[in-house]
Write a sequence for this structure.
């Protein structure tokens, strides 16, 4: 499961609208916490989203790439905040919010969440999250992941939703 | 020197985000690192011993692939090494 504040959730969706017809991308900073109940999987709790530049200017409408140098800086930023990189987000302009073969082939952060927002004619539509599970490249897989959206000043569990 | 470990690989360093390893070059540091945490090796290197294509390693602010001596680059105790897997994708 992925838990995110409503403002961050809306911000990453807005990012996709701003970069339309190109793909946007960014990094999710937070903490991976053990599930509250034994039967619940670990949760990636998002504390902050960080916008990143898409270096794939040659094909930005259907590709994204975050420069490693920018990732290093973001990881430093996370460390300074006492947070970890727990996921990433990007948009699919005029395309479903489902992971593609390219998304899968280029996914290497096991245990992290990959959020995808479909942006239809410039408007953010569906947002889905996928957990990259597995222990190594040979057995990695994307699993559908529920998104728990937290409204401000509420306690966990009061608001749930998936756009 | 300090080595920063990305989130997915911390399960192989006992949960540590930063580990301290001594060595004279990037290669010797890697040897020490994978000697101390053997499970890391297969995630960082191919069976032939080459750094995996999706694994980026930065010595301070420099990608070691673009340094003149690459993995043979000399390092000092106050240098920092950051291991950072790539992130990319696209709709099709």
């Amino acid at each position: 499961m992925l838990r995110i504040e409503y403002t961050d959730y809306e911000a990453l969706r807005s990012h996709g609208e701003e970069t339309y017809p190109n793909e946007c991308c960014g990094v999710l900073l937070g903490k991976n916490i053990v599930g509250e109940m034994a039967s619940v999987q670990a949760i990636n709790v998002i504390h902050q989203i960080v916008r990143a530049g898409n270096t794939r200017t040659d094909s930005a409408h259907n590709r994204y790439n975050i420069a490693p140098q920018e990732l290093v800086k973001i990881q430093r930023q996370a460390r300074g905040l006492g947070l970890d990189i727990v996921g990433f987000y990007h948009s699919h302009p005029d395309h479903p919010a489902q992971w593609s073969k390219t998304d899968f082939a280029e996914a290497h952060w096991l245990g992290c969440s990959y959020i995808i927002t479909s942006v239809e004619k410039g408007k953010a539509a569906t947002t889905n999250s996928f957990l990259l599970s597995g222990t190594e490249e040979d057995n990695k897989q994307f699993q559908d992941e529920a998104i728990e959206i937290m409204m401000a000043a509420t306690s966990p569990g009061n608001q749930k939703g998936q756009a | 020197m300090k080595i920063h470990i990305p989130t997915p690989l911390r399960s192989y360093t006992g949960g540590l985000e930063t580990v301290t390893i001594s060595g004279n070059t990037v290669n010797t540091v890697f040897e020490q690192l994978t000697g101390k945490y053997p499970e890391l090796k297969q995630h960082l290197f191919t069976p032939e011993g080459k750094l995996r294509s999706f694994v980026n390693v930065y010595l301070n602010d420099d990608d070691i692939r673009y340094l003149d001596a690459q993995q043979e680059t000399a390092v000092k105790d106050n240098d920092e090494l950051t291991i950072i897997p790539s992130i990319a994708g696209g709709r099709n």
